[in-house]
């Protein structure tokens, strides 16, 4: 069949085994650990057991749709409508996500419950079925009051290119393009912010923004060679080896060099600057898991992590559950050291979708920090609540009664908004990429004024001890309005 049975690079070998039908049934890592696969008569994967022993099973109906999956005690059922569209999912009998569609079959809403909060993602489309908007909403568990809302809208030109984006609470972003969509400039509202000059291969060679100009050059192989700003301290020069690996980044302030193994893995970083010379070595086992570096820890006997789970390093001890999730991280006591019970312990708790929902850090058996997290149905974090240890009115040290709340807004897979009670930070990315282009930071108070919220509205939205909203009596609202005026 001509199928690869092993690959060797730098003396490290990974091998594959096949059944009579030519399907991979066994994968052996460079550490000698195995992952196995099983299939049904229709070549569908029905079971896989990983390097760490975790087993997952899959069941399909007669039409090939996945209807049940098992993951070390987590049983998920997948439900569909008559048009074979996914409608909802249950995990261990509890409803997880729900999908809703319009009469044309386009997805309009995905919702689920995250730690009691109803979190929904809404989608809008134009007549051609192109996405025109995405909105995330979070509602209070008891009152159903709207706690958070974030929306991003999109528009298209006559050629069908997405040339206009309206971020939440910001002016419209317009992308100026030529040809088949090459970026030539960017406007925020009516203000031109960025202009691009490109070479014959349509690669960016000059970027102008305000009084700054960024010049970019490339090697004959097309690799980034230099980026020079008319503020010299920000200049960067890049050097590559014959294998295409980045080996040096030079700037007026410092030089950073990188070294690699014959397998292409990073083995060290060397940073030099005025009065600075730092070498950071990296050691790995054959499968690429980090090991204590022999130069810094010559007494270490560790040579590999067979199950791909790192149990300890130079600073911490790690513990995992049967799903491979990190559950505990504790300060490592050096050999010969005296235990004083002042080790800090980090504990991590997850939901049925393997998302981190609760974190604590303790010392002397006392909590130092506690945080809880909310997610939307797509697994994107939408909220974080943090309680920190502080001194109360009686002089005792304890966790704060009211959490610090941070909200997150998304445009697809890109995090675009981070908001807390002090500021709102929004990021505009280059089109179709995860490369940040513009950062807009607004004081939350200014944001409230631009949204024309009254004092009563602001207090009601942020007045709950759990970070949620409260409802004032009409008389109190009138008093606050008079006070504000």
UniProtKB/TrEMBL annotation:
Transmembrane segments: none annotated. Keywords: Repeat. Residues 12-132, 249-386 form the Teneurin-like YD-shell domain. It comes from the Bacteria. InterPro entries: T6SS_VgrG/RHS, TEN-like_YD-shell, YD. NCBIfam families: YD_repeat_2x. This is Rhs element protein RhsB. It comes from Escherichia coli O33. The gene is rhsB.
């Amino acid at each position: 069949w001509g199928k690869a049975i092993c690959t060797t690079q730098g003396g490290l070998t990974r091998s594959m085994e096949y059944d009579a039908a030519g399907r991979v049934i066994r994968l052996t890592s460079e550490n000698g650990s195995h992952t196995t696969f099983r299939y049904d008569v229709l070549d569908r994967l029905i079971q896989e057991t990983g390097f760490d022993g975790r087993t997952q099973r899959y069941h399909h109906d007669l039409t090939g749709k996945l209807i049940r999956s098992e993951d070390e005690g987590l049983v998920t059922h997948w439900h569909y409508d008559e048009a074979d569209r996914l409608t909802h999912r249950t995990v261990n009998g509890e409803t997880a996500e729900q999908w809703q569609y319009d009469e044309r079959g386009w997805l309009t809403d995905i919702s689920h419950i995250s730690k009691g909060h109803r979190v929904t993602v809404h989608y809008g489309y134009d007549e051609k079925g192109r996405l025109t908007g995405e909105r995330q909403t979070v509602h209070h568990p008891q009152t159903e009051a709207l706690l958070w809302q974030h929306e991003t809208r999109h528009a298209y030109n006559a050629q069908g290119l997405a040339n206009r984006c309206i971020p939440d609470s910001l002016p419209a972003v317009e992308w100026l393009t030529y040809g088949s969509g090459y970026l030539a400039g960017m406007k925020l509202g009516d203000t031109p912010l960025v202009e691009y000059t490109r070479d014959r291969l349509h690669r960016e060679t000059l970027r102008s923004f305000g009084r700054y100009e960024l010049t970019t050059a490339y090697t004959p192989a097309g690799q980034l060679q230099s980026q020079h700003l008319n503020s010299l301290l920000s200049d960067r020069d890049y050097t590559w080896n014959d294998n295409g690996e980045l080996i040096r980044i030079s700037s007026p302030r410092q030089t950073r060099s990188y070294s690699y193994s014959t397998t292409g893995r990073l083995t060290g970083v060397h940073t030099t600057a005025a009065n600075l010379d730092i070498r950071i070595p990296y050691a790995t086992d054959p499968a690429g898991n980090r090991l204590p570096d022999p130069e810094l820890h010559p007494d270490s006997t560790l040579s590999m992590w067979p199950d791909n789970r790192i149990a300890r390093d130079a600073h911490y001890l790690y513990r995992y559950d049967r799903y491979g999730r990190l559950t505990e991280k504790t300060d490592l006591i050096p050999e010969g050291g005296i235990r004083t019970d002042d080790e800090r312990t980090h504990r991590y708790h997850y939901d049925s979708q393997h998302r981190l929902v609760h974190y604590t850090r303790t010392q002397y058996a006392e909590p130092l920090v506690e945080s809880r997290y909310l997610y939307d149905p797509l697994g994107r974090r939408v909220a974080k609540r943090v309680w920190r240890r502080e001194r109360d009115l009686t002089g005792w040290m304890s966790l704060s009664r009211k959490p610090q709340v941070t909200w997150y807004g998304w445009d697809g897979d890109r995090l675009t908004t981070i908001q807390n009670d002090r500021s709102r930070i929004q990021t505009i990315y280059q089109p179709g990429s995860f490369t940040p282009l513009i950062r807009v930071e607004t004081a939350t108070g200014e944001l409230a004024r631009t949204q024309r919220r009254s004092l009563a509205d602001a207090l009601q939205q942020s007045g709950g001890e759990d970070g949620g909203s409260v409802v004032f009596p009409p008389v109190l609202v009138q008093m606050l309005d008079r006070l504000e005026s």
